[in-house]
Amino acid sequence: MNILIIYGTTEGQTRKVAGFLQNEFENQKHHVTLSDANGTPPAPAGFDVVILGASMHMERYQEPVLYYIREHHAALSKTVSAFYSVSLTAASDDEASWHELKHITERFLIAGHWHPALVEYVAGALRFTKYDFFKKFILRQIAKRADPAAAAGDDKEYTNWDALKAFCTKIEQLAAAAPVTVRPEESDFEAVC
């Protein structure tokens, strides 16, 4: 399988998740192209699977990911595609927070005119050592409610790597069940013969 993974990141956890997915798929002998949405990511054409990831901050995902989706929504709709959302909310058990997370994600995908076959919610990380004073203060207040131990100010990662392995398996199953399409170069070859 030829897989494209595009990510948008603010503090690096979404990039770390993308690298993990790349390693998992490459261990299964798939070819993976990894690209930051802030650069010039390749178009979806020619890939069997396209996975996009973004992190949510202040109820928003990275704009470059949305731009990519809007530009390529028609091609994304014709291939096996998935979206992973990285946030601290995904580490929470609070039902109202989850409802809001899903609502924000739905609005984001609707804004891009994209309906991925799979959406995965991934718990992010607190990186207090990388925050400025103001951000540390705000996130400590948030952390007090969700995880009092994290409010001490130590970096903490909440990502469930086993759940991401299961996400990879689901994507492989979706790709295996997808109808086989003839690539343009294959149909051209048949026409010549």
Walk me through the topology.
Elements: E1 2-8, H1 13-27, E2 31-36, E3 49-55, H2 63-77, E4 80-87, H3 95-111, E5 118-123, E6 125-126, H4 133-146, E7 156-157, H5 161-177, H6 184-192
Parallel strand pairs: 1-2, 1-3, 3-4, 4-5
Antiparallel strand pairs: 6-7
Helix pairs in contact: 1-5
Give structural notes:
The chain is an alpha/beta fold. It is 45% helix and 20% strand. It has helices spanning 13-27, 63-77, 95-111, 133-146, 161-177, 184-192; strands spanning 2-8, 31-36, 49-55, 80-87, 118-123, 125-126, 156-157. Strand 3 (49-55), helix 2 (63-77) and strand 4 form a beta-alpha-beta unit. Helix 1 (13-27) packs across helix 5 (161-177). The longest helix is centred in the middle third of the chain and has 17 residues, at 95-111.
Order of helices and strands: EHEEHEHEEHEHH
Radius of gyration: 18 Å
| Helicity level | 40-55%
**N-C termini distance:** 26 Å
Q: Strand order, main sheet: write it out.
A: 2-1-3-4-5
Q: Outline, from the CA principal axes? A: globular
The profile of the biggest β sheet is: 5 strands, parallel
Structural class: alpha/beta
Text of the CATH class of the largest domain = Alpha Beta
Give the tally of β-strands: 7
Question: How is the CATH topology of the largest domain named?
Answer: Rossmann fold
Assembly state of the chains shown:
single chain
Mean pLDDT: 85
Low-confidence stretches: 182-193
CATH architectural group of the largest domain: 3-Layer(aba) Sandwich
Number of domains: 2
What is the CATH homology-level superfamily of the largest domain?
Flavodoxin domain
